[in-house]
Design goal:
Layout: H1 22-25, H2 30-36, E1 49-50, H3 66-78, H4 91-101, E2 114-117, H5 119-131, E3 137-142, H6 147-154, E4 158-165, E5 171-172, H7 174-180, E6 185-191, H8 203-216, E7 220-223, E8 248-253, E9 266-271, H9 276-279, H10 282-290, H11 298-302, H12 304-307, H13 310-335, E10 340-342, E11 350-355, H14 365-376, E12 378-379, E13 381-382, E14 391-395, H15 400-416
Parallel strand pairs: 1-12, 3-4, 3-6, 6-7, 7-8
Antiparallel strand pairs: 2-9, 4-5, 8-9, 10-11, 11-14, 13-14
Helix pairs in contact: 5-6, 5-10, 13-15
The structure holds pyridoxal-5'-phosphate.
């Protein structure tokens, strides 16, 4: 029965009173926003080259290891993987990840230290939800991947940016980190190898960061989605490998390593050797939070052991060879263009290019990007999307000949728009 004041009796008592939550309103992803709302059209006479989104599948030249694809289709047809798994992921998948990351550069970990998530994005959301709340803050690198801020803000948290030193191969400005820490700081996010900088930190630099975190008693969230994606023999060290005491939440996914971003499988690896997180109830919270969504999907979880098998890892090396080749091809071409200054990428899949606006006749990086798209049909992302004005980021995922063509278009573009005629 409807109560007497129901709309049936008096329609005017009821109005739609919907409001959007402040958290939702404060959710903003600068890269997605820029890419999806670009109103400038490319030059119809030139084939578009999109070096914008860090999607290794964009050009079809960096395939997912084929054995895993084959296994996935067999597993789906078998009908055995249509049910739920444990909320934090199947044991088989977590074991494969634990085994892979227990190799020499890492402290050994167990399957129970791994929680599966919906990509690294889901891992960021999971750890920030467990550590932070309204009014708390997290330290993020600048320039840095903007999703940290997007997710923190949508959880009601703030971000405080710490400086990366361009002149020092984008190493962390340790003094700046110290100056940003306050009583509300719940974590320091370290992204290594870096998006957008393409830098890879040395063991010694990681030790300095960990020592600082130890002194300030702040845990580290290590976004290591580009773990082991290094060029020319540069070694990768995980933050956890340098941290006997400080709790580290290491995040990753198969998105870049195995060129499978659409499969949406990521993880959090908990390194808590002194039970600091456990005693604070944070590990329990992480598990409770996984009970909301039950991700990633069971069929994708089922192929993780194959993906991390020796055969697939060999195939993965081909992805790395191509990215490395591209970094080595594009760097000298772009570095020689007057008005551009680059740091040679050591890993990940990006090059961050400084624009000298005393040489190039543009007001800012957004104008540069839009005009480049309009005249040369080359799509890049302005540095301001990463909190760094006066730069652009390119992705190194295109076939070498396409990347070379993009570099040559950038060269004529910069020459045409030089302030020096
Ligand atoms: C540093 C960094 N973290 C997280 C992500 C998100 O990755 P995923 O596709 O695994 O969610 C990306 C994607 O580009 C990234 O560059």
């Amino acid at each position: 029965m409807l109560p007497s004041h129901s709309p049936k009796n008096n329609q005017s008592d009821f109005q739609w009173k919907l409001t959007c939550s402040p958290r939702a309103k404060s959710t903003f992803n600068p890269i997605r926003n820029f890419v999806q709302n670009m109103s400038v059209k490319p030059n119809p006479e030139k084939t578009p080259i999109r070096l914008s989104v860090g999607d290794p599948t964009e050009f079809g030249n960096l395939p997912i290891p084929q054995q895993a694809v084959q296994q996935l289709s067999e597993n789906i047809l078998s009908g055995k993987y249509n049910g739920y798994t444990l909320s934090f992921g199947s044991l088989e998948a977590r074991k494969a990840i634990a085994d892979y990351f227990s190799s020499s550069n890492y402290y050994p970990i167990q399957p129970q230290d791994v929680l599966l998530t919906c990509g690294t994005a889901g891992a960021i959301e999971l750890v920030l939800s467990a550590l932070g709340d309204e009014g708390k803050n997290v330290l993020v690198p600048k320039p840095g991947f903007p999703l940290f801020q997007t997710i923190a803000n949508s959880l009601g948290m703030k971000t405080k940016a710490y400086h990366l030193k361009q002149e020092d191969n984008w190493q962390v400005d340790l003094a700046d980190i110290v100056s940003q820490i306050d009583h509300q700081t719940v974590a320091i996010i370290v992204n290594n190898p870096s998006n957008p900088c393409g830098s890879v930190y040395t063991k010694e630099h990681l030790q300095d960061i960990v020592n600082l975190a130890e002194k300030c008693k702040i845990p580290i969230i290590a976004d290591e989605v580009y773990a082991n994606m290094c060029f020319d023999g540069v070694p990768f060290y995980s933050v956890a490998s340098q941290s006997p005491h400080v709790p580290i939440l290491s995040l990753g996914s198969i998105s870049k390593l195995f060129a499978a971003p659409g499969w949406r499988l990521g993880w959090v690896i908990v390194h808590d050797r002194h039970d600091i997180l456990r005693n604070a109830g944070i590990i329990q919270c992480l598990h409770q939070l996984t009970m909301r969504m039950l991700v990633p999907s069971s069929p994708i979880q089922s192929v993780i052991p194959i993906l991390f098998s020796e055969q697939c890892r060999k195939e993965q090396l081909r992805i790395m060879e191509e990215l490395q080749h591209n970094a080595n091809t594009a760097y000298p071409l772009l570095e020689s263009i007057p008005g551009l200054r680059c740091t040679k990428p050591q890993g990940a899949m990006y090059m961050f290019i400084h624009l000298d606006l005393n040489v190039l006749a543009f007001e800012n990086d957004v104008e540069f990007t839009e005009t480049l798209w309009k005249e040369e049909s080359v799509f890049v992302i302005p540095g301001s999307c990463f909190g760094w004005n006066g730069a652009v980021r390119i992705v190194l995922n295109a076939p070498s000949c396409v990347l070379t063509e993009a570099c040559s278009r950038l060269q004529s573009f910069c020459e045409r728009h030089s302030r020096h005629g």
